[in-house]
Amino acid sequence: AQTVTQSQPEMSVQEAETVTLSCTYDTSESDYYLFWYKQPPSRQMILVIRQEAYKQQNATENRFSVNFQKAAKSFSLKISDSQLGDAAMYFCAPNNAGNMLTFGGGTRLMVKP
Amino acid sequence: SQTIHQWPATLVQPVGSPLSLECTVEGTSNPNLYWYRQAAGRGLQLLFYSVGIGQISSEVPQNLSASRPQDRQFILSSKKLLLSDSGFYLCAWTQGGVNEKLFFGSGTQLSVL
After folding, report:
1. What is chain B's percent helix, strand, coil content, to nearest 5?
2. Which of chain A's ends, N or C, has fewer CB atoms near its CB within 10 Å?
3. Contact of A90 with A66, CB cutoff 8 Å
4. Is the pLDDT of residue A98 over 70?
5. Which residue of B has its CA nearest to A32?
6. 10 Å Cβ neighbour count for A83?
């Protein structure tokens, strides 16, 4: 079974600054994907970014990027130029062979104006 | 384009009453379907998933059951609700390929009193 740990229950960042959310996981899969989802106050789950484990290059989506360390089983999310709309719960989730995602406990990100 | 509908948005039920939450997907065929539950301030826990009509897999033993009477319809049920069934329930789908991202419904907030 997979386990996912997000060690930061809450994080705070100043608008326009950069913040990094951490995630570590444990998996026996050799080929898998990792996802970061965002859940704003509306509670709608929104995909932020996706990383293929067999790719060494870190994924990037506009202001969002990841630092993927496969050997360490670490998958952190970096948000650059933080905006007020980035305030949300962020969940890290690796998948397994059946494409079932295991979610971490989440990190609540607050953005200060 | 594909859309996912989940209803109702909010539900308040007494202990011991039955439950039926419905989820439908439009614009695709033979999706993989999932039910997740989110306790307050926590991550998502996978309850059930289905790869086809009548095919249901349960991830955790509990007071709930799921059914898939049609290709794009997924129903979460209970004969008698418990207080511990309270939570935010999310339906999700993927196209069925490996490592596909999940698309989530808008969720149902269930309060059992």
Report:
1. 5, 55, 40
2. C
3. no
4. no
5. B99
6. 12
d(CA B46, CA B30) in angstroms, rounded, equals 20
- Closest partner residue to B98 (CB to CB) among A42, A99, A105 is A99
What pLDDT digit, counting tens, does each position of A64-90 carry?
999 999 999 999 999 999 999 999 999
The rounded distance, in Å, linking the Cα atoms of A92 and A82 is: 19
Mean per-residue pLDDT for B87-96?
Answer: 91
Measured between beta carbons, the chain B residues lying within 8 angstroms of A95 are 99
Closest CA to B23 of B112, B110, B111, B107: B107
What distances in angstroms separate CA B4 from CA A34, A41, A92, B1, one per listed residue? 23, 19, 22, 10
Do B26 and B3 touch, CB atoms closer than 8 A?
yes
